[in-house]
Amino acid sequence: MNVREWALVAFTILAQMSVGAFVVLGLVHAWAMQRYSPDKADQLSDRALLAIGPTLALGLLASLFHLGNPLFAYRAVFNLASSWLSREIALGSTFALLGALFAFLQWRKIGSFELRNVVALLAATVGLVLVYAMARVYMLPTQPAWNTWATPVSFFVTTFLLGTLAIGAAFVATYWWEWRGGRLQGSALAEMLRPVLRTLALAGIVLLGLEFVVAPLSVALMATGGAAASVGILTSQYGVMFALRLALVFLGAGVFGLWLYRTALRPGAETLLGRLAWTAFALVFVSEVLGRFLFYATHVKIGL
Amino acid sequence: MSRQLAFHVNAAVCTGCKACQVACKDKNNLEVGRLFRRVYDVDGGGWVERNGFMEPNVFAYSLSISCMHCQSPLCLEVCPTGATFKRADGIVMVNKDVCIGCRYCEWACPYGARQFNEATGQSSKCDFCADLLDKGEQPACVATCPQRALEIGELSELQAKYGATSQVYPLPEADLTQPSIVITPHPAMLLANANTARVAKPGEV
Fold first, then answer.
1. I need a surface site. Which of A199, A210, B123, B146 has the fewest CB within 10 A?
2. For position A82, which CATH number holds?
3. How many domains is chain A partitioned into structurally?
């Protein structure tokens, strides 16, 4: 691994986290609108929404570090006809533009609610297609460790797991911000925080279950799909890191997720709630970074 | 049918002297680390029992390869900028005005033909010595070979003359990219037991 490959770890993780956060935020927002009111839903999600853009921008910026000639990065979209890499960059840029447009409209409350809804749905759809395209980039016939359905599945699990916990952390941060400004009294936020965190924690636990199905399955697919060399590298050279990655995601989404869920069942303990949400997110984030590092560190090409 | 230039490699007469490799390095001014043409030394075998006696079946051969200028080049398919293109005569080339050095082609190519030029930050590869071809000369590797083991020509004509072998150890499955290469096999390539064949001195390629 070198700077160039770390750039790809940063890009794929941050871009997937952005897509996941955008989709999860949309779902929470829709729920809050139904349950409470559009105004209250806006109070909950507007700040979190503003955190997604910089995350994606950082990811796109990181991707430049993997190029020999970053100044001409725009040329990467010239071969949409046959290159998944071109499609990935085009979709990534489109998601960024649509997301930024939506965030701006939503923030300034420009346009009708229906119009903003359409823009948000469009952005979310492009984002999900982007995650699929990201997976397809690696599904080369000459890369048996990557060329399995485990690649898109694990990319989507990463997307939603990181998105879910990032949104949880963002809500807690919003809550803290409002509390510091003394605006919490009678605000919708105080009312919504606990049910939202409970749902997010539960979703995280379900996604963790999925991850624990996909991770061993992907190793099995590697072993049977002609990537025995990759399994060898993973289990010998990187065995400890692989175990650490699984332990961290279990600790984050599982142990801290359950703790977060139980704490959010009863009133009070706001400080603890915040710490739990952030710890769960941080642990899972580190685990996903390690997992993505292993993805790049263990692939072995067919041929010479 | 469109033209497709190809290399014929007569592995039966190749001695593994690596003059082609050195000529290529010289012609393309390649620093340590980049080798457009590489000679793979392969050996293997051991003892086998036959009629109650133990017999040796050791073997060794050399295989000189460069870019295969594939008929379905995966590097061209995945290149995001379109910098990789196929000339009318079938040569796979890189447009230096367009390549951004994403190195995606290196992940795709099963022949190790796509190599990164750190100095320019771009991909580089064997271009069949297109400049020499255009002057009516032979590629540096072909002109250098003391055994006359390398030859260029139209793929279909070379196949008619020498057969259609394009996949011997340690080359990957030809189906992947349909390489434009015709190999006259070394006798040991036909005997070589894939289980015991190995690339000797892998550090040299």
1. B146
2. 1.20.1630.10
3. 1
Instruction: Establish if B78 touches chain A: CB-CB under 8 angstroms.
Output: yes
- Residue B59 distance to chain A (closest CA, Å): 21
Asked if A69's CB is within 8 angstroms of B99's CB, the reply is yes
Over residues B23-56, the pLDDT tens digits come to 999 999 999 999 999 999 999 988 889 899 999 8
| Tokens standing for residue A54 | 């910089």
Kind of pairing, strands B181-184 and B5-10?
Answer: parallel
CATH of the domain at B50: 3.30.70.20
Chain A CB contacts of B101 below 8 Å: 67-69
Contact A32, A43 (CB under 8 A): no
Q: Which domain holds residue B25?
A: 5-67+127-200
Residue A82: closest C-alpha in chain B: B77
pLDDT at A1: 65
CA–CA dist B85, B79 (Å, integer): 9
- Count of structural domains within chain B: 1
Nearest to B182 by CA among B158, B160, B153, B150: B158
- ipTM value, please give it: 0.92
A83 touches B: beta carbon within 8 Å: yes
Q: Tell whether A302 is within 8 A of chain B (Cβ).
A: yes
Q: Is residue A116 part of a domain?
A: yes
* Closest alpha carbon within chain A to B110: A303
Is residue A64 situated within a structural domain? yes
Write down the H helix ranges in B29-146: 74-78, 104-108, 130-134, 140-144
Instruction: Please report residues of B whose CB lies closer than 8 A to that of A85.
Output: 78, 80, 102, 104
- Residue A302 falls within a domain, yes or no? no
- A66 and B102 within 8 Å at the Cβ level: the answer is yes
pLDDT, one tens digit per residue, over B9-22 is 999 999 999 999 99
Q: How many CA atoms lie within 13 A of A214 on its CB side?
A: 18
Within a domain: B76? no
Look at the pTM and tell me if it is higher than 0.80: yes
Residue B113 included in any domain: no
Question: Domain limits at A66?
Answer: 3-297
